[in-house]
Amino acid sequence: MAAPVSLQVEFGGGAELLFDGVKKHQVTLPCQPEPWDIRNLLKWIKQNLLKERPELFMQGESVRPGILVLINDADWELMGELDYKLQDQDNVLFISTLHGG
């Protein structure tokens, strides 16, 4: 059984508007049989934090194209993307790079 994981989850570049305008969330993910990864975190975010228009944040089981994901200030592409195993006190930042005109 994987222990609970405490994280800071942040949203920026307009993505915070989908989360009631709240940019920073201190969250504790509960115990579960397998270790927490980004794939499971995204499901948890969708169920627990996302307030409106999930299609603007997620596509399938990942984030939409145009949303930059940083894990502890490093691009998630360098960290294994959806398969990155979350560690206690990680900081996960989602930044929308899409802007209306």
Automatic annotation (TrEMBL):
Post-translational modification: C-terminal thiocarboxylation occurs in 2 steps, it is first acyl-adenylated (-COAMP) via the hesA/moeB/thiF part of MOCS3, then thiocarboxylated (-COSH) via the rhodanese domain of MOCS3.
CDD domains hit by this protein: Ubl_Urm1 (cd01764)
One GO cellular component, as annotated: cytosol
Modification sites for 1-thioglycine: G101
Gene3D superfamilies linked: 3.10.20.30
One BP annotation, GO: tRNA wobble uridine modification
Cell compartment(s), UniProt: Cytoplasm
Positions bearing the Glycyl lysine isopeptide (Gly-Lys) (interchain with K-? in acceptor proteins) cross-link: G101
Alphabetical list of Pfam families matching this protein: Urm1
Functional pathway: tRNA modification; 5-methoxycarbonylmethyl-2-thiouridine-tRNA biosynthesis
Keyword terms of this UniProt record: Cytoplasm, Isopeptide bond, tRNA processing, Ubl conjugation pathway
Source superkingdom: Eukaryota
Family: Belongs to the URM1 family.
HAMAP family, alphabetized: Urm1
Name of this chain's protein: Ubiquitin-related modifier 1
Gene: URM1
